Amino acid sequence: xxxxxxxxxxxxxxxxxxxxxxxxxLNKNKLLFLLPSLLGVLFFLTPVPWNGNPTIVIGIxxxxxxxxxxxxxxxxxxxxxxxxxxxxxxxxxxxxRWIVQHPKxxxxxxxxxxxxxxxxxGTAFGxxxxxxxxxxxxxSDAIGGVVFVDIGVNVIPVYxxxxxxxxxxxxxxxxxxxGTLARPLFRKVFQLPGRSAVDAITSFVGASSIGCLxxxxxxxxxxxxxxxxxxxxxxxxVVSIPFCLVVAAVAGIEQYFISWYGVVVLACLITAIITSRxxxxxxxxxxxxxxxxxxxxxxxxxxxxxxxxxxxxxLARAENAPGIKEFLTTGLANMMFFMFxxxxxxxxxxxxxxxxxxxxxxxxxxxxxxxxxxxxxQLPDAAAAATxxxxxxxxxxxxxxxxxxxxxxxxxxxxxxxxxxxxxxMSELGVVILRSSLPLSLGDLAAIFLLRTVIVLPxxxxxxxxxxx
Length: 469
Fold this sequence. Notes:
2 strands; 2% strand
């Protein structure tokens, strides 16, 4: 009897040990999901008071980094453009061995001729403004100052922080958790498959181009129909939270950031509901890339607990989360990509777009019919605002740049919102879409841009009057 008791006790002890061993990976995954995700929410999504105004933590960190840059911000921006052009010439023209034989350096600095030209142009614009030599139009604060100081100096600290801290939101299960919970909304309201929620969240916390590339990949793999992919790419590839911080800083409305961002999200959701049901998006084929007709969205995945499914997917992602070395390596690689592949080109395209917007009558002509409507909506500086209404089609910074020169928080609030909500800008996202397999033409993109502008404008105006006044 005693032997049996001892035997039973031993077996129970072994069972408990095995149970604890089996639970260990699960508990580890829970921690890997919860701790980094909570940090990501704290950094990117939690309002905090700062200097008497609400902001988010990365806004405080970026302000600190900008303070460290001090009076050398412009020199840092121009120095990075010069370094980019020199390395691009070495890689693209001279094909130096240590660049072309290194995969990551080759991707950064061995580029097609058009991108070499754009980088050289961006560097030339920067040197002209820094040394104040050349045409007055480029040495002026209205063009060179806005692009290289107001945008360039603001965008560098934002993207340094975003590249290093954004993986807390994207790589440890937060996206899978929130995307799964948002799935019913996307099915019922937007008539889209559940996985599109993940695309949208990727764009909101990451970058519009990343969300768009996810959508294109899903379409190419037969997971979206043409209609679904076009709706997602043109409505949910919204510019990211870090970019929104830059827009708010350029437009001079940082003190309203939390409220402004809420209005922007609301405007984008309303626009997605409407434009997805109107041409040209509603006329896109509800068929997959191979021609197979679209299938009814399966709903079996919602038969159980949606919260449980979201939890399980988050833990599965956490199980494959990056280690510290991979985390830092990825962050630094993303930062290098921004510094060397994006910054100089963005400075060039923003300068060109500024010249077209503010020194040609094109956008004044397009905005002229809307001056009376803006005055009726009691928007100060209606004529200046009307000129900027459609300039975002060239580059997303243009309405925010126009806002920087307007002495009205209400009008700046609206124009900064357009920089985010119009979404179809040819300097980046438009080019990505046109070069992809998505059945969207330049005319389609222009029509969608106009639709989005007409829909979001009343929402932004109402939000501006409510928040500012």
